TrEMBL record:
GO terms for molecular function: mannose-6-phosphate isomerase activity. The gene is manA. It is an enzyme of class 5 (isomerase). It catalyses: D-mannose 6-phosphate = D-fructose 6-phosphate. PANTHER family: MANNOSE-6-PHOSPHATE ISOMERASE (PTHR10309:SF0). Pfam families: PMI_typeI_cat. This is mannose-6-phosphate isomerase. Keywords: Isomerase, Metal-binding, Zinc. Residues 4-151 form the Phosphomannose isomerase type I catalytic domain. Coiled coil: none annotated. Its EC number is 5.3.1.8. Belongs to the mannose-6-phosphate isomerase type 1 family. Its cofactor is Zn(2+). It comes from the Bacteria.
Length: 420
């Protein structure tokens, strides 16, 4: 077990304060810091602070895959860490995006290989053969758009904006007779028709429709307390940044989600989403497969996006994973084999003595990444102990568990393990 020093990624949408403050470095940072990667991604592996200096986690895994990952994970995923853990700090919205299923990723990767698109090319969609399910847990208030909202509610929102230019599009959702179909498949067909119309619309059409929607949103917000205030404000914010972008219209179709610290959403294959603002812990399968749908200067491959999107409407409640409590641990129930996440809260009766914290996956083995988010926690493993302060993380190899935890004052840490 060693302290794990994450790799900081600077992107324009990041924060000059959040990650620097969290990790105890001078504020403001020199560049907007968007992500802190705690994993063994070949592009930017985290480093272990060992007695002999810093070592890349990638090299540590290569030297002793079975001891680090355990036999169960090794048999399923080979000698690489299948998950990537990130602290994400968004001061500005990210691009609208979706991730493929395993079958889509494999097919897409092979297709792009056959076509000879270099894996590093900016127009490459599939950089590996993995799906990329992701869990986002808010560490501070977090704002997101995710999943197509149930159609009846979207029609209410579009009507509330009172934009006559939207009428033909409302008809696409409501059906030809203006009567909303009962069955979900028809709703998905309507969403597919509408989204496809918008995302493929000629630019001159968007240059009329997007400003009309923004006008409608301004008028809607100025006429008193409004049911869809958060949705309207988000559309205005996105429209200001990306005038004439079809992604601004697409944002009208997605659930507008506000997460309090500790609350989470699980994003499965085909889910159109974007993170708007906030600090969160993001745990995902170790993949770079992203199909963008706008709100970005980067490459947008519309046909490929349409191929992977899941237009089945979903409620915010369905996106929030169920949780269960075992001792001091709150476990987020997610279906991915690549990762599992829990939050350990040490307070009350759990203070002042060592608390068992067995891993609940990989037959009690498997590696663990720990991230302290409040207070100070001493972690005891087979090889010794270390103390994590807020913002610090640790790598516990498979053969170094199970761990016990000790805190004298209220403390919290997140634990990511493989989900098998
Ligand atoms: Zn994503």
């Amino acid at each position: 077990m060693d302290h794990l020093r994450g790799a900081i990624r600077t992107y324009a949408w990041g924060s000059r304060t959040a990650i620097a403050e969290f990790t105890g470095r001078p504020v403001p940072a020199a560049h907007p810091e968007a992500e802190l990667w705690l994993g063994a991604h070949p592009g930017d592996p985290a480093r272990l602070e060992t007695g002999d200096g810093e070592v890349s986690l990638l090299d540590v895994l290569a030297a002793d895959p079975e001891g680090q990952l355990g036999a169960v994970a090794l048999a399923r995923f080979g000698d690489r860490l299948p998950m990537l853990v990130k602290v994400l700090a968004a001061d500005e919205p990210l691009s609208l995006q979706a991730h493929p299923s395993t079958a889509q990723a494999l097919e897409g990767y092979q297709r792009e290989e056959r076509l000879g698109v270099p894996v590093t090319s900016p127009i490459r969609n599939y950089r590996d053969t993995s799906h990329k399910p992701e869990l986002l847990v808010a560490l501070a208030p977090f704002e997101a758009l995710a999943g197509f909202r149930p159609v009846a509610r979207t029609i209410e929102l579009l009507r509330a904006l009172s934009v006559s230019d939207l009428d033909p599009f409302i008809d696409l959702l409501a059906g030809p007779d203006g009567v909303l179909a009962e069955d979900g498949q028809t709703d998905a067909d309507g969403l597919r028709a509408l989204f496809t119309t918008w995302i493929t619309a000629p630019q001159p059409d968007l240059d009329v429709l997007v400003p009309a929607v923004l006008e409608g949103a301004i008028h809607y917000l100025s006429s008193g307390p409004a049911e869809f205030a958060a949705e309207a404000r988000t559309v205005l914010e996105l429209g200001e940044r990306y005038p004439g972008d079809a992604g601004v219209l697409a944002a009208l179709l997605l659930n507008r989600i506000s997460l309090a610290p500790g609350e989470a959403i699980f994003v499965s294959a085909g889910n159109l989403h974007t993170y708007l603002h906030g600090v969160g812990l993001e745990v995902m399968a170790n993949s770079d497969n992203v199909l963008r749908g706008g709100l970005t200067p980067k490459h947008v491959d519309v046909p490929e996006l349409l191929r992977v999107l899941d237009f089945t409407p979903t409620t915010e409640e369905e996106l929030r994973p169920k949780t269960r409590v075992e001792g001091p641990e709150l476990i987020y129930a997610t279906p991915a084999e690549e990762f599992a996440v829990s939050q350990v809260t040490l307070d009350g009766d759990y203070l002042g003595h060592e608390v068992d914290a067995p891993s609940r996956h990989c037959d009690g083995q498997g590696p663990q990444i720990l991230l302290c988010t409040r207070g100070s926690v001493t972690v005891h493993a087979k090889s010794g102990s270390l103390t994590l302060q807020r913002g610090e993380s640790a790598w516990v190899s498979s053969d170094d568990g199970p761990i016990r935890l000790l805190a004298q004052k209220p403390a919290s840490l997140y634990r990511a393990t493989i989900g098998l």
